[in-house]
Amino acid sequence: MRLKELITRSGGVITAIALLGSMMSMAGAAIGTFPCSICSKSYTEISTDLNLTKSYQDAYNVADIPNLVNSNKMRYHNSYVYIAIYNGEGICQSCLENIIAEYKAANSDTISSPGTGSTPVTLTAAASTFNVTVPTSIPLVVGADSKVTSPSNVKIINNSAGPVKVAAIAMNDGVWTITDYNGGDRSKLAAEKVGSNKLGLSLTAGGNTVASSKNGSQSPAIDSTKWRITGKNTGNNGLPITVGAIASAVSTKIENAVTAANVVFTVAWDK
User: CA-CA distance, 227 to 207, in Å (whole number)?
Assistant: First the structure.
């Protein structure tokens, strides 16, 4: 009796397990057969277990391909790969694999048949060192007749690898006051009181003259295209500057040089 009951119960268990297996089989039942939107061949869709089915990216180890997505609900009947949707329509697994193969070939450095291959040229760069030498001073000598002698060796030297330009020039007061250069005519200064300590300046490079035009510190207009200096190793990386100056008369000899004014050169890359 006990043995019979045990067999009956065992049979009940076996039957239950068989029924469960049948239910699992039904869960993977075919939903339908559809034509591939690319090759028109039929393929079968099966409802899938989300925990077992892979996207085409995971199944074929490939990145996202333009216009190709996963259905996320159905799989191919012979594999646990989601049905692929290409340009909004379902495709068979064979066409999916062709698309993936073409994508990998187009994004690979391997040429599998006679033809051409594209190789990107990548580049990284360190910023070029900006190295420009400006004059340490512009020594002026005012004679007894108040005429000013200017140096002839004033230049800006570009030690950089690329061209630079003088973008701006400022003429600032020192112990003297900047005044109108007046084209080099000092007739206005001849009317100034002796010892008024006024200085007019002009700087010319590349045919462009930058000159003071009023009293006090100022930043005259400049044509930067004329103040361009090529990079080193060109044999022409120095920009000569012609200096012009007029000065008011002085009553007492100045033996030790004073900083009458300051010229500020703003130099930038010529881009």
Answer: 9
Distance (Å, rounded) from C-alpha 30 to C-alpha 10? 33
Read off the pLDDT of residues 176-192 as tens digits, 9 standing for 90 and up: 999 999 999 999 999 99
For the chain, how many residues are written? Answer: 271
CA 246 – CA 179 distance, rounded (Å): 9
Q: pLDDT of 95-111, one tens digit each?
A: 999 999 988 878 776 66
Intra-chain end-to-end CA distance of the chain, in Å: 103
CB 33 within 8 A of CB 43: yes
Residue 269 main-chain phi, psi, to 5 deg: -60, 140
Sequence ranges of the domains in the chain: 28-106, 132-269
Continuous H helices in the chain? 2-27, 56-60, 93-106, 187-190
